[in-house]
Amino acid sequence: MRVAQRQWGAERVGARIEAVLAGVARGLVEHGVERLVVAGGETSGAVVAGLGVKRLHVGREIELGIPWDPSRRPAPVAGTQVGQLRLTGLLRHRPRGEREVSAEAELRVELCDLGASMYSRGLTAGSSGNLSARLADDTWLATPTGVSLGRLDPAALSRLDAAGRLLGGHEPTKEVPLHAAMYAARPQERAVVHLHSHWSVAVSLLPGLDPDDALPPLTAYQVMKVGRLALLPYYPPGGTAAADAIRALGRAPRAVLLARLGPVVAGSSPAAAADAVEELEAAARLFHTVREAGVHPLTQAEIDELSNRFGAIW
Predict the structure, then answer these.
(1) Beta-carbon contacts of residue 172 (< 8 Å; ≥ 6 apart)
(2) Are residues 70 and 160 in the same domain?
(3) Of these residues, 119, 183, 221, 235, which one is catalytic?
(4) Cβ atoms of 134 and 108 closer than 8 Å
(5) Closest by alpha carbon to 139, among 178, 93, 195, 179?
(6) Residue numbers of the domain that contains 28
(7) Of 99, 131, 159, which one is at a domain's C-terminal end?
(8) pLDDT confidence tier of residue 41, bands split at 50, 70 and 90
(9) Whole-prediction pTM value?
(10) 119 belongs to the catalytic site
(11) Are 142 and 217 members of one domain?
Protein backbone atom coordinates (compact mmCIF):
# COMPACT_ATOMS: atom_id res chain seq x y z
CA MET A 1 0.00 0.00 0.00
CA ARG A 2 2.76 2.44 0.94
CA VAL A 3 4.62 1.73 -2.30
CA ALA A 4 1.47 2.39 -4.34
CA GLN A 5 0.77 5.60 -2.39
CA ARG A 6 4.29 6.86 -3.00
CA GLN A 7 4.07 6.09 -6.71
CA TRP A 8 0.55 7.35 -7.49
CA GLY A 9 -0.42 9.40 -4.45
CA ALA A 10 -2.54 8.49 -1.47
CA GLU A 11 -5.66 10.20 -2.81
CA ARG A 12 -5.66 8.35 -6.13
CA VAL A 13 -4.93 4.97 -4.53
CA GLY A 14 -7.68 5.56 -1.98
CA ALA A 15 -10.15 6.46 -4.73
CA ARG A 16 -9.34 3.25 -6.61
CA ILE A 17 -9.83 1.12 -3.50
CA GLU A 18 -13.13 2.80 -2.69
CA ALA A 19 -14.36 2.35 -6.27
CA VAL A 20 -13.51 -1.36 -6.16
CA LEU A 21 -15.30 -1.84 -2.84
CA ALA A 22 -18.37 0.07 -4.07
CA GLY A 23 -18.50 -2.18 -7.13
CA VAL A 24 -18.15 -5.30 -4.99
CA ALA A 25 -21.01 -4.10 -2.75
CA ARG A 26 -23.29 -3.55 -5.77
CA GLY A 27 -22.45 -6.99 -7.11
CA LEU A 28 -23.18 -8.64 -3.77
CA VAL A 29 -26.58 -6.97 -3.44
CA GLU A 30 -27.48 -7.75 -7.05
CA HIS A 31 -26.71 -11.42 -6.40
CA GLY A 32 -28.88 -11.74 -3.32
CA VAL A 33 -26.69 -10.78 -0.37
CA GLU A 34 -28.88 -9.11 2.26
CA ARG A 35 -26.30 -8.04 4.83
CA LEU A 36 -23.22 -5.89 4.20
CA VAL A 37 -20.55 -5.25 6.82
CA VAL A 38 -18.49 -2.13 6.15
CA ALA A 39 -15.62 -0.83 8.27
CA GLY A 40 -14.23 2.68 7.84
CA GLY A 41 -15.93 6.01 7.33
CA GLU A 42 -14.64 6.80 3.82
CA THR A 43 -15.15 3.22 2.68
CA SER A 44 -18.69 3.27 4.06
CA GLY A 45 -19.35 6.50 2.18
CA ALA A 46 -18.11 4.96 -1.08
CA VAL A 47 -20.29 1.87 -0.63
CA VAL A 48 -23.31 3.94 0.34
CA ALA A 49 -22.91 6.17 -2.73
CA GLY A 50 -22.36 3.15 -4.97
CA LEU A 51 -25.60 1.55 -3.78
CA GLY A 52 -27.58 4.76 -4.30
CA VAL A 53 -28.59 4.88 -0.62
CA LYS A 54 -30.45 8.07 0.30
CA ARG A 55 -32.38 7.39 3.55
CA LEU A 56 -31.60 6.59 7.20
CA HIS A 57 -32.94 3.80 9.38
CA VAL A 58 -31.96 3.24 13.01
CA GLY A 59 -32.62 -0.11 14.72
CA ARG A 60 -31.15 -3.00 16.64
CA GLU A 61 -29.11 -4.35 13.71
CA ILE A 62 -27.74 -1.14 12.36
CA GLU A 63 -25.38 1.43 13.85
CA LEU A 64 -26.65 4.98 14.28
CA GLY A 65 -26.22 7.09 11.16
CA ILE A 66 -25.58 4.26 8.69
CA PRO A 67 -28.02 4.80 5.79
CA TRP A 68 -29.92 2.19 3.86
CA ASP A 69 -32.51 2.20 1.12
CA PRO A 70 -35.84 0.66 2.21
CA SER A 71 -37.08 0.56 -1.38
CA ARG A 72 -34.89 -2.50 -2.06
CA ARG A 73 -36.48 -5.96 -1.78
CA PRO A 74 -34.96 -7.44 0.33
CA ALA A 75 -33.38 -4.42 1.94
CA PRO A 76 -29.61 -4.58 2.44
CA VAL A 77 -28.54 -3.97 6.02
CA ALA A 78 -25.35 -2.04 6.77
CA GLY A 79 -23.39 -2.88 9.93
CA THR A 80 -20.03 -1.77 11.30
CA GLN A 81 -18.82 -4.71 13.39
CA VAL A 82 -16.08 -6.62 11.57
CA GLY A 83 -16.81 -9.62 13.79
CA GLN A 84 -20.11 -10.06 11.95
CA LEU A 85 -18.35 -11.17 8.78
CA ARG A 86 -18.23 -14.85 9.75
CA LEU A 87 -21.46 -14.84 11.74
CA THR A 88 -23.61 -13.65 8.85
CA GLY A 89 -21.90 -15.83 6.28
CA LEU A 90 -21.10 -12.83 4.09
CA LEU A 91 -17.81 -14.32 2.97
CA ARG A 92 -19.56 -17.44 1.69
CA HIS A 93 -21.35 -15.36 -0.97
CA ARG A 94 -19.31 -14.97 -4.14
CA PRO A 95 -20.99 -12.87 -6.82
CA ARG A 96 -21.33 -14.67 -10.14
CA GLY A 97 -20.47 -11.38 -11.86
CA GLU A 98 -17.15 -10.97 -10.06
CA ARG A 99 -15.27 -10.01 -13.24
CA GLU A 100 -17.94 -7.52 -14.25
CA VAL A 101 -17.75 -5.90 -10.80
CA SER A 102 -14.00 -5.48 -11.18
CA ALA A 103 -14.44 -4.09 -14.69
CA GLU A 104 -16.98 -1.57 -13.43
CA ALA A 105 -14.65 -0.38 -10.69
CA GLU A 106 -11.85 0.11 -13.21
CA LEU A 107 -14.23 1.90 -15.57
CA ARG A 108 -15.25 4.31 -12.80
CA VAL A 109 -11.65 5.21 -12.11
CA GLU A 110 -10.87 5.53 -15.83
CA LEU A 111 -13.72 8.02 -16.35
CA CYS A 112 -12.51 10.12 -13.41
CA ASP A 113 -8.90 10.04 -14.62
CA LEU A 114 -9.93 11.11 -18.12
CA GLY A 115 -12.11 13.89 -16.74
CA ALA A 116 -9.25 15.21 -14.62
CA SER A 117 -6.86 15.04 -17.58
CA MET A 118 -9.18 16.96 -19.92
CA TYR A 119 -9.96 19.54 -17.24
CA SER A 120 -6.29 20.12 -16.40
CA ARG A 121 -5.51 20.79 -20.08
CA GLY A 122 -8.29 23.30 -20.58
CA LEU A 123 -10.64 21.18 -22.70
CA THR A 124 -13.48 21.92 -20.29
CA ALA A 125 -14.12 24.62 -17.70
CA GLY A 126 -16.14 24.95 -14.52
CA SER A 127 -18.70 22.16 -14.23
CA SER A 128 -19.28 21.89 -17.99
CA GLY A 129 -18.83 18.72 -19.99
CA ASN A 130 -19.95 15.17 -19.28
CA LEU A 131 -18.76 11.62 -19.85
CA SER A 132 -20.41 8.21 -19.93
CA ALA A 133 -19.44 4.59 -20.52
CA ARG A 134 -21.47 1.42 -21.05
CA LEU A 135 -21.06 -1.75 -19.01
CA ALA A 136 -21.35 -5.31 -20.27
CA ASP A 137 -25.01 -5.54 -19.22
CA ASP A 138 -25.83 -2.32 -21.17
CA THR A 139 -26.32 -0.27 -18.04
CA TRP A 140 -24.01 2.72 -18.08
CA LEU A 141 -22.08 5.13 -15.91
CA ALA A 142 -22.33 8.90 -16.30
CA THR A 143 -20.79 11.89 -14.61
CA PRO A 144 -23.03 13.67 -12.06
CA THR A 145 -24.69 17.00 -12.68
CA GLY A 146 -22.99 20.17 -11.46
CA VAL A 147 -19.62 18.51 -10.80
CA SER A 148 -16.38 19.60 -12.46
CA LEU A 149 -14.68 16.95 -14.57
CA GLY A 150 -11.55 17.83 -12.61
CA ARG A 151 -13.07 16.69 -9.30
CA LEU A 152 -14.95 13.48 -10.06
CA ASP A 153 -15.40 10.77 -7.42
CA PRO A 154 -15.50 7.18 -8.77
CA ALA A 155 -18.02 6.08 -6.13
CA ALA A 156 -20.37 9.01 -6.86
CA LEU A 157 -20.75 8.45 -10.61
CA SER A 158 -24.34 7.90 -11.70
CA ARG A 159 -25.37 4.43 -12.80
CA LEU A 160 -28.25 4.24 -15.28
CA ASP A 161 -30.21 1.53 -17.01
CA ALA A 162 -30.27 1.13 -20.78
CA ALA A 163 -33.09 3.68 -21.03
CA GLY A 164 -31.17 6.30 -19.01
CA ARG A 165 -33.06 5.90 -15.72
CA LEU A 166 -31.05 6.38 -12.54
CA LEU A 167 -30.18 3.16 -10.69
CA GLY A 168 -27.66 4.48 -8.18
CA GLY A 169 -25.15 7.18 -7.37
CA HIS A 170 -25.66 10.92 -7.65
CA GLU A 171 -28.09 12.72 -9.95
CA PRO A 172 -26.68 12.40 -13.49
CA THR A 173 -25.78 15.10 -15.96
CA LYS A 174 -28.76 16.79 -17.57
CA GLU A 175 -27.35 15.69 -20.94
CA VAL A 176 -28.30 12.04 -20.41
CA PRO A 177 -30.62 12.22 -23.48
CA LEU A 178 -27.62 13.17 -25.67
CA HIS A 179 -25.64 10.16 -24.50
CA ALA A 180 -28.62 7.83 -24.87
CA ALA A 181 -29.17 9.08 -28.43
CA MET A 182 -25.54 8.43 -29.39
CA TYR A 183 -25.66 4.90 -27.96
CA ALA A 184 -28.90 4.25 -29.86
CA ALA A 185 -27.45 5.60 -33.11
CA ARG A 186 -24.11 3.81 -32.68
CA PRO A 187 -24.80 0.62 -30.69
CA GLN A 188 -21.27 -0.65 -31.21
CA GLU A 189 -19.78 2.20 -29.17
CA ARG A 190 -19.04 1.93 -25.43
CA ALA A 191 -18.41 5.54 -24.37
CA VAL A 192 -19.51 9.11 -25.12
CA VAL A 193 -17.80 12.43 -24.37
CA HIS A 194 -19.54 15.83 -24.60
CA LEU A 195 -17.42 18.95 -24.10
CA HIS A 196 -17.85 22.68 -24.55
CA SER A 197 -14.30 22.90 -25.89
CA HIS A 198 -13.23 26.33 -27.14
CA TRP A 199 -12.11 25.73 -30.74
CA SER A 200 -14.85 23.27 -31.62
CA VAL A 201 -17.51 25.69 -30.38
CA ALA A 202 -15.79 28.44 -32.39
CA VAL A 203 -16.12 26.35 -35.57
CA SER A 204 -19.85 25.94 -34.90
CA LEU A 205 -20.25 29.74 -35.00
CA LEU A 206 -18.81 30.18 -38.49
CA PRO A 207 -21.22 30.95 -41.36
CA GLY A 208 -21.67 28.80 -44.42
CA LEU A 209 -20.69 25.41 -42.97
CA ASP A 210 -21.94 22.20 -44.55
CA PRO A 211 -24.12 20.55 -41.87
CA ASP A 212 -23.14 17.11 -43.17
CA ASP A 213 -19.42 17.86 -43.28
CA ALA A 214 -18.65 20.84 -41.04
CA LEU A 215 -14.86 20.50 -40.87
CA PRO A 216 -12.69 19.66 -43.89
CA PRO A 217 -10.29 16.70 -43.62
CA LEU A 218 -7.08 18.48 -42.66
CA THR A 219 -4.96 15.71 -41.12
CA ALA A 220 -4.67 11.96 -41.30
CA TYR A 221 -5.49 11.51 -37.63
CA GLN A 222 -8.60 13.65 -37.91
CA VAL A 223 -9.83 11.28 -40.62
CA MET A 224 -8.84 8.14 -38.70
CA LYS A 225 -10.00 9.10 -35.20
CA VAL A 226 -12.89 11.53 -35.78
CA GLY A 227 -14.31 11.00 -39.24
CA ARG A 228 -16.89 13.21 -40.87
CA LEU A 229 -18.33 15.87 -38.53
CA ALA A 230 -22.09 16.55 -38.58
CA LEU A 231 -23.26 20.01 -37.46
CA LEU A 232 -26.60 20.39 -35.68
CA PRO A 233 -28.43 23.67 -35.01
CA TYR A 234 -28.45 25.27 -31.58
CA TYR A 235 -30.75 23.68 -29.03
CA PRO A 236 -30.91 24.70 -25.36
CA PRO A 237 -28.86 22.41 -23.12
CA GLY A 238 -30.61 19.81 -21.02
CA GLY A 239 -33.58 19.20 -23.31
CA THR A 240 -34.42 16.41 -25.72
CA ALA A 241 -34.35 18.40 -28.98
CA ALA A 242 -30.64 17.80 -29.66
CA ALA A 243 -31.04 14.11 -28.84
CA ASP A 244 -33.98 13.89 -31.25
CA ALA A 245 -31.86 15.56 -33.94
CA ILE A 246 -29.10 12.97 -33.43
CA ARG A 247 -31.61 10.15 -33.77
CA ALA A 248 -32.95 11.76 -36.95
CA LEU A 249 -29.50 11.35 -38.53
CA GLY A 250 -30.11 7.61 -38.66
CA ARG A 251 -26.71 5.99 -38.31
CA ALA A 252 -25.02 9.01 -36.76
CA PRO A 253 -21.34 9.75 -37.43
CA ARG A 254 -18.90 9.21 -34.59
CA ALA A 255 -18.71 12.95 -33.93
CA VAL A 256 -21.55 15.48 -33.86
CA LEU A 257 -21.06 19.21 -33.29
CA LEU A 258 -23.84 21.07 -31.48
CA ALA A 259 -23.92 24.73 -32.49
CA ARG A 260 -22.83 27.02 -29.63
CA LEU A 261 -22.43 24.04 -27.29
CA GLY A 262 -19.68 21.75 -28.54
CA PRO A 263 -18.90 18.22 -29.71
CA VAL A 264 -20.54 14.93 -28.77
CA VAL A 265 -18.17 12.08 -29.64
CA ALA A 266 -18.60 8.31 -29.28
CA GLY A 267 -15.89 5.69 -29.07
CA SER A 268 -15.20 2.02 -28.49
CA SER A 269 -13.89 2.88 -25.02
CA PRO A 270 -13.60 5.98 -22.82
CA ALA A 271 -10.01 6.41 -23.95
CA ALA A 272 -11.00 6.14 -27.63
CA ALA A 273 -13.79 8.70 -27.22
CA ALA A 274 -11.45 11.06 -25.35
CA ASP A 275 -8.75 10.69 -28.02
CA ALA A 276 -11.29 11.46 -30.73
CA VAL A 277 -12.66 14.59 -29.04
CA GLU A 278 -9.11 15.85 -28.48
CA GLU A 279 -8.21 15.19 -32.11
CA LEU A 280 -11.34 17.11 -33.13
CA GLU A 281 -10.35 20.05 -30.94
CA ALA A 282 -6.85 20.07 -32.48
CA ALA A 283 -8.32 20.01 -36.00
CA ALA A 284 -10.73 22.82 -35.13
CA ARG A 285 -7.86 24.96 -33.86
CA LEU A 286 -5.80 24.21 -36.98
CA PHE A 287 -8.76 25.17 -39.17
CA HIS A 288 -9.06 28.55 -37.45
CA THR A 289 -5.32 29.09 -37.80
CA VAL A 290 -5.11 28.52 -41.56
CA ARG A 291 -8.54 29.30 -42.97
CA GLU A 292 -7.81 32.95 -43.73
CA ALA A 293 -4.81 31.95 -45.84
CA GLY A 294 -6.77 29.19 -47.55
CA VAL A 295 -7.34 25.59 -46.57
CA HIS A 296 -5.99 22.69 -48.62
CA PRO A 297 -7.73 19.57 -47.30
CA LEU A 298 -6.67 16.00 -47.96
CA THR A 299 -7.60 14.77 -51.41
CA GLN A 300 -10.10 11.96 -51.94
CA ALA A 301 -7.23 9.71 -53.02
CA GLU A 302 -5.41 10.39 -49.75
CA ILE A 303 -8.57 9.69 -47.76
CA ASP A 304 -9.09 6.45 -49.70
CA GLU A 305 -5.55 5.36 -48.83
CA LEU A 306 -6.25 5.93 -45.13
CA SER A 307 -9.43 3.91 -45.48
CA ASN A 308 -7.62 1.02 -47.16
CA ARG A 309 -4.68 0.96 -44.75
CA PHE A 310 -6.36 1.80 -41.43
CA GLY A 311 -10.08 1.26 -41.94
CA ALA A 312 -10.83 4.98 -41.65
CA ILE A 313 -14.41 5.97 -42.55
CA TRP A 314 -15.12 9.36 -44.07
Answers:
(1) 142, 143, 144, 145, 158, 160, 166
(2) no
(3) 221
(4) no
(5) 179
(6) 2-99
(7) 99
(8) low
(9) 0.71
(10) no
(11) yes
